[in-house]
Amino acid sequence: MTPSPTEEDLIPFPIPSVTTTPTSTYYFLYGPHPSSTSTTPLVILHGGPGIPHNYLLPLTALAEPPHSIPVIFYDQFGCGRSTHLPSPPVPAAEFFTPALFLSELDNLLSHLNIRGNYSILGQSWGGMLAAEHAVRRPPGLRNLIIANSPADMGSWMRAAERLRAQLPEDVKEVLDRCEQEGRETSGEYENAMMPFYERHVCRIVPMPAELEASFQALKEEGTVYATMNGPSEFSVTGTLKTWDIRPELHRIQAPTLLLNGRHDEAQDEVVEPYFRAIDRVKWYRFAESSHTPQLEEREEFMRVVAAFLGDS
User: Fold this and answer.
1) Which of 19, 83, 85, 238 lies at a CB distance of 3.0 to 4.6 Å from 228, suitable for a disulfide?
2) Choosing from 124, 149, 155, 290, which is the catalytic residue?
């Protein structure tokens, strides 16, 4: 059972181009307040983009003794309990960019007064965002954890196509037909995606409640995901289609832990560039997991992450 947060609140996040409504980021703190402990707080960056933090709540275990790490979750702008903006003041592709979410992260760190001392764990898109943050060499970043994240979208899409080819023929037929007809949001397409999810996103059936809650929130407000990713895991047509952090990875100075699962849609070749380019990096692959090892191998995930944070 997930404990109650120590603190939760809205943080004003002013965006110059948005003048018609207040814009805010909602955060949740678990464990001791950063001001009351010398332990470096851990900031969690969720995936999607646009899939709120619920599915990462097993990480609240790190806030409990013996670790007692301040763990900070937040819903990125446009999803969860943060401000939703389905009709931004400029075209969505120009508005929902990595730069927006980097600015939001900086705003959060400043508001919580932890810019001088913090660690980051980013999962999937959150790891991509974490890498974008880390290559800027922020002086307060103590540790970096990149979980289940591509270093470039080209390798991500090639891996997805290879994994898709291994699906049953009747499933592939439905996926192909729905994509040709532009029906990626239909119930038929969603049902056909389930075999892929059960193999390469979360191998626990039925889907854990935390992940179900995040996916339901995405169904209710999918602007950010549709804009930056596209209609599905297989149809990456959004603004991240050409994203590639590989040329900048050598700039990351923080000690880094790289994570993925044996059955992950973030296959080894997708995450390997992080391992090759970052100077101080460790890589751990979860043998029984896919894209969500914090759900699939909870105890082992917490052990690996806690050990890294304790050793760094």
Assistant:
1) 238
2) 124
Q: What is the 3-state secondary structure (H, E, C) of the chain?
A: CCCCCCEEEEEECCCCCCCCCCCEEEEEEECCCHHHCCCCCEEEECCCCCCCHHHHHHHHHHHCCCCCCCEEEEECCCCCCCCCCCCCCCCHHHHCCHHHHHHHHHHHHHHCCCCCCEEEEEECHHHHHHHHHHCCCCCCEEEEEEECCCCEHHHHHHHHHHHHCCCCHHHHHHHHHHHHCCCCCCHHHHHHHHHHHHHHCCCCCCCCHHHHHHHHHHHHCCHHHHHHCCCCCCCCCCCCCCCECHHHHHHCCCCEEEEEECCCCCCHHHHHHHHHHCCCEEEEEECCCCCCHHHHCHHHHHHHHHHHHHHC
Catalytic-residue membership of 291 = yes
**How confident is the model over 168-219, as pLDDT tens digits?**
999 999 999 999 999 988 999 999 999 999 999 999 999 999 999 999 999 9
Average pLDDT over residues 7-16: 97
pTM score of the predicted model: 0.97
Burial class, 298, CB count within 10 angstroms (exposed 0-12 / middle 13-18 / buried 19+):
middle
